[in-house]
Amino acid sequence: MGNDIRGALRSLNEQRREIYVFALSVLVFGLLLYLLPAPLVEICLLIGILGFAYHIFLTYFEDYTTNLKMSVIPIWVPFFVLSLSLSFMYMMKYNYSIPQIVVFSALLVVFFYFWFIIPAAWYQKHINKSSSGKRSPSSTLSILVPAYNEEEYIGRCLDSLKDSQYPIPKEIIVIDDGSEDNTYDVAQNHATNNVKIIQQSNGGKHSALNAGLEQATGDVIVTVDADSVITETALVQIVADLEADANIGAVAGTVKLLRVQSHVEKLQALEYALGINTFRRAFAVLGFVNVVPGCLGCYRRTALESVGGFDGDTMTEDFDVTIKLLKSGWNVQASDALVYTDAPRTWRTLYRQRIRWNWGNIETLTKHRDLLWDKRVNNLTGILIPYQIISLFVMPFATIVILWTIISQLAMGNILYVATMLAIFTLLQMIASLFALVLDENDVLLCIYAPLVVVVYKHIIDAIIIKSLLDILLQKDLKWTQSRDHSPDNSKTPDSTRNKTNTSTIDMEAEND
């Protein structure tokens, strides 16, 4: 009874926080629209209306004429060209300079985030919260834990899996992928009757997952990285979300950082809340979550087997299998089921991690390049794929243009103009960060790092993406390096995991932006 009351009070406080932050966001965004030039506001509203119409069009034809043949041109191209043309015409009509056009274009991106992403993420969060907890999963469950040289982390992971609640006995399968350390022995020491440990020659993560899939007996497959920790309710939540609809082929867990102490870690924690988790919730409204993370993913076995399991031809097998499921017609949803993992603590290890992620993303998009010219009209080809392309191939270079504009304006002595624009973007970033952190039930004080995201962090991440693209164009080989730059410490895991083992710092191999 006491726990129920505390839970109700906590939920009420969370709702109040969301209402306050939502009201503040509306106020600041409305004030910005009031202060901005009327033509720019008109452009924002016009593109917003076009965006809604575009989504309605995709939904209508996806429901009624899935195989509608439009032309050799993807459906998203005309919308993109129309939006750019209207924006350019408006700006030319009012004789805006090139720097003004650059700044206003950046504001359009921010407008898109406030107009579409935040409301969709908020809606999904509350729909998911209202429906979860009322269902008790009934499917048989197998949990796959691929492991390679994870002696420092596998014990902690297994303890969290054993402690996580599930209404019927669960099967845990550890696949030791040719480890050269004591991973197998440590896993044996933490094993119980429901834990099976198999060994194989090193074949990569995809090979380990497929080997585990062959041994699994459950109708539902959950994958967990050996260096991650799940909460006590994670399995119940994520499987219940999978069972909510027979068309759901996979469900993505919510990733948070286990250790948030250094500045680099705090910037990444804000990035996860503001970018990865918020966008994942927004895409879940469409049923097209772009990545099921390797640290916590849930799959309907029939769906996973129907696409041939996990492939080894990309570095991001989680992104690849998600795209395969979406192409096959399965919905992919998001869950509030929590998994905790550590992030790189230094810029050097962050660089290594993001290089690998970027290479894997590019490999996966190249592998599925047929989606670029897919004539089907749906949210996958009309929204998700264009978003991935623009994020990876357009936005990093747009950052270069923005930096050039700032430098040129400073050189011309327009210091006040630059300072005003930076202040506006920083304010918007802080409001968006605050809303995302509240939505993610995270530490709201992380929003003080929003200025660093605007001024430093985003440009570093974009520079790494550009470096990855150049490496591929120059046909450089990616030298495999681990991102771990430290050994486990003795800090405690978050209280929500109720895990008594020591924490450690690991690299998040399978999460994508």
UniProtKB/TrEMBL annotation:
Pfam families the record matches? Glycos_transf_2
Tell me the Gene3D superfamilies matching this sequence: Spore Coat Polysaccharide Biosynthesis Protein SpsA, Chain A
GO MF terms, alphabetically ordered: glycosyltransferase activity
Q: Which residues cross the membrane?
A: 19-36, 43-61, 73-90, 102-123, 385-407, 414-436, 448-470
Q: What SUPFAM superfamilies does this protein's entry cite?
A: Nucleotide-diphospho-sugar transferases
Start and end of every Glycosyltransferase 2-like domain? 142-307
Source organism's superkingdom? Archaea
- Enumerate the InterPro entries for this protein: Glyco_trans_2-like, Nucleotide-diphossugar_trans
**Polar residues bias: where?**
490-506
What protein name is recorded for this chain?
Answer: Cellulose synthase/poly-beta-1,6-N-acetylglucosamine synthase-like glycosyltransferase
Q: Which UniProt keywords apply?
A: Glycosyltransferase, Membrane, Transferase, Transmembrane, Transmembrane helix
Region (Disordered) residue ranges read 482-513
